[in-house]
């Protein structure tokens, strides 16, 4: 406890760190206040009466911190921006124009930032129309159509752009990655209500207090397991050639290339979830089809068919995303230019093949572990955990929480060590995620 108070005191003594943490909290407070401002022309009482927080709606509502179900001006949150960043990142792999922009340094990044913002506006406008039609019933509208739709498409688009601006300000003036912190804040905001609901259901006879304590212990175990996945690395030793210039020696040291066990982060789960929404969509268009039973089973996240297909897709997407984001040939070329080599391995193509083989070996357990974490919420629901609380047992939400917290703590510790204070831990150091840059030049949440 004394160590904790000493660390907090050291953080408060550093003016730059104190200002950054204060700015971050103020920006997040603005976001949380805005999440309770209802769209113009919406009757909040009529809206909440028929809200559904299950399935996809519940997942989106959790990422938006409850704004989605409240029909807030921030209902769409930063998800359109994340979608635009992913699209630009994929275009940067396949389209020559975007590949060229990625290699142009600062000017290229500025262009990609502009494209990302423009695409965010388009995606937000399209999603706003779908949101108003599907989530706001006619009896909750105080303004007649089409004025209601036109007005609130502009409001929702402006809300998403404002949240995106808040995220950029947190990154510049605060601590940590702004977009990631906004998503994490939305997820954490749903945790107290889920905790209370589960506690009440258990203490009122469905298992008792002992079962609830077992659930909490299991949740802590899953969190520790997720931390192992996020932090796991395979180090490859690299020796640099020794050069003597005058009386000084350069190089001649051994360093390591840390290859992440889960280099793809949360992206495979996001891609797999997007594909798993397709059966539900097809079932709505063809309700009398002979294969409708299979489609319904694939749409039910508690069914074994859904979870088996979901796990297989995650494993495949983990290999795919790792292959397009980690380039062994480029790593080998950079190493060769700087006079480095892997002991016992010839420079050039042999080194690239060696790195590729290591990545392939560590990606298999990483993808399997990621698939297990992704289906744990469904397993928790099958053993009686409420669906609201089960979402925190794994999946996208837990990986985002663990990754963002570790990344933010690592930045705080860097500020402490830079000013010759002790770190956050007595032994060892907090290691943040090595996030994959998006097309916009930022680190994704998830991502």
TrEMBL record:
It is a multi-pass membrane protein. GO terms for biological process: intracellular protein transmembrane transport; protein targeting; protein transport by the Sec complex. The keyword Transmembrane helix applies. It is found in: Cell membrane; Membrane. It holds the Pfam family SecY. One of its GO terms (cellular component) is plasma membrane. Keywords: Cell membrane, Membrane, Protein transport, Translocation, Transmembrane, Transmembrane helix, Transport. The chain crosses the membrane at residues 21-39, 73-95, 115-132, 147-166, 178-197, 209-230, 264-286, 306-326, 362-383. HAMAP family: SecY. The central subunit of the protein translocation channel SecYEG. Consists of two halves formed by TMs 1-5 and 6-10. These two domains form a lateral gate at the front which open onto the bilayer between TMs 2 and 7, and are clamped together by SecE at the back. The channel is closed by both a pore ring composed of hydrophobic SecY resides and a short helix (helix 2A) on the extracellular side of the membrane which forms a plug. The plug probably moves laterally to allow the channel to open. The ring and the pore may move independently. Component of the Sec protein translocase complex. Heterotrimer consisting of SecY, SecE and SecG subunits. The heterotrimers can form oligomers, although 1 heterotrimer is thought to be able to translocate proteins. Interacts with the ribosome. Interacts with SecDF, and other proteins may be involved. Interacts with SecA. Belongs to the SecY/SEC61-alpha family. PANTHER family: SECY/SEC61-ALPHA FAMILY MEMBER. This is Protein translocase subunit SecY. It comes from Mucilaginibacter pallidiroseus.
């Amino acid at each position: 406890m004394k160590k904790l108070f000493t660390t907090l005191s050291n953080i408060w003594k550093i003016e730059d760190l104190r200002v950054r943490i204060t700015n971050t909290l103020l920006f997040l407070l603005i976001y949380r206040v805005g999440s309770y401002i209802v769209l113009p022309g919406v009757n909040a009482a009529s809206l909440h009466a028929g809200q559904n927080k299950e399935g996809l709606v519940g997942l989106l509502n959790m990422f938006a911190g409850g704004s989605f179900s409240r029909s807030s001006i921030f209902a769409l949150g930063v998800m359109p921006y994340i979608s635009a960043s992913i699209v630009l990142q994929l275009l940067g792999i396949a389209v020559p124009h975007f590949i060229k922009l990625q290699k142009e340094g600062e000017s290229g990044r500025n262009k990609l930032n502009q494209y990302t913002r423009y695409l965010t506006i388009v995606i937000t406008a399209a999603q706003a129309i779908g949101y108003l039609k599907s989530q706001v019933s006619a009896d909750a509208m105080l303004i007649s159509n089409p004025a209601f739709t036109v007005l609130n498409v502009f409001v929702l688009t402006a809300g998403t752009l404002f949240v995106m601006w808040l995220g950029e300000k947190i990154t510049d003036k605060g601590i940590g990655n702004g977009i990631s912190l906004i998503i994490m804040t939305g997820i954490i905001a749903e945790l107290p209500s889920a905790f209370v609901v589960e506690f009440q259901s258990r203490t009122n006879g469905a298992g008792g207090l002992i079962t609830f304590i077992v659930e909490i212990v299991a949740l802590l175990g899953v969190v520790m397991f997720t931390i192992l996945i996020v932090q796991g690395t395979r180090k490859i030793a690299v020796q640099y050639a020794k050069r003597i210039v005058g009386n000084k020696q350069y190089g001649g040291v051994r360093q390591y290339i840390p290859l992440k066990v889960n280099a793809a982060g949360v992206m495979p789960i996001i891609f797999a979830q997007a594909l798993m929404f397709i059966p539900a969509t097809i079932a709505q268009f063809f309700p009398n089809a002979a294969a409708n039973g299979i489609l319904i089973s694939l749409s039910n996240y508690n069914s074994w068919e859904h979870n088996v297909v979901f796990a297989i897709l995650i494993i495949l997407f983990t290999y795919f995303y790792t292959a397009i984001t980690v380039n062994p040939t480029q790593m080998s070329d950079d190493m060769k230019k700087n006079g480095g080599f892997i002991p016992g391995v010839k420079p050039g193509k042999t080194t690239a093949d060696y790195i590729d083989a290591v990545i392939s070996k560590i990606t298999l357990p990483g993808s399997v572990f990621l698939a297990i974490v992704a289906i744990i919420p469904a397993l928790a629901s099958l053993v009686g955990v409420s669906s609201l609380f089960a979402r925190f047992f794994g999946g996208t939400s837990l990986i985002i929480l663990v990754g963002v917290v570790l990344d933010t703590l690592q930045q705080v510790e860097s500020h402490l060590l830079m000013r010759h204070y002790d770190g956050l831990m007595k032994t060892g150091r907090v290691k943040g995620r090595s996030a994959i840059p998006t097309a916009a030049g930022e680190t994704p949440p998830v991502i």
